[in-house]
Amino acid sequence: MDTVFAETSVLPPRRVRKGECVVDAALDLIGGKWKGVIVFHLLDGPLRFNAVKRHLPGVTQRMLTKQLRELEAAGLVHRTVYAQVPPRVEYRLTEAGQTLSPVILALRAWGETHLRVRDEA
User: Fold this and answer.
1) Residue 33: CA atoms inside 13 Å, Cβ hemisphere, count?
2) Are 100 and 35 in contact (CB under 8 A)?
3) Following CA atoms 107, 80, 9, 96 in sequence, which dihedral angle do they give, to the nearest 10 degrees?
4) Bridge partners for 4 per DSSP
5) If residue 38 lies in a helix (H) or strand (E), which one and from where to where?
């Protein structure tokens, strides 16, 4: 059985400033080419780094690391390092990250409909 070697802590989510657009603040957390897709794949449960990478053809290791760190800093993803050789690192959604499920699944449904309509046109 693996033992947990280290767990990273994350900063609490930042508060929306007065006058700031909450949609802009939300998209800042999950926007971009990779973050939403990372969250989508983590909805099914924890994944190791290379498993996440396999779901994202075209992403570089450096970019994936950056995106995972940003999601972690936002409190949406939790990173666990297990004490074994070679080290095993696992990523999972936090409770806050799990609350994105209806949003991500709605985007998926919209995308499927949009692509079908576009292809029929």
Assistant:
1) 8
2) no
3) 30
4) 82
5) helix 35-42
For 14, the token pair is 């930042």
**How far, in Å, CA of 53 to CA of 28, rounded?**
22
Sheet (strand 3-7) strand order: 3-7, 77-83, 88-93, 47-48
Does pTM top 0.85 for this prediction?
no
d(CA 121, CA 113): 12
Q: What are phi and psi of 87, to 5 degrees?
A: -60, 140
Angle (deg, nearest 10), helices 35-42 and 22-30: 70
| Local confidence pLDDT in tens for the 121 residues of the chain | 444 444 444 445 556 677 778 888 888 888 889 999 999 999 999 999 999 999 999 999 999 999 999 999 999 999 999 988 888 999 999 999 999 999 999 999 999 998 888 888 7
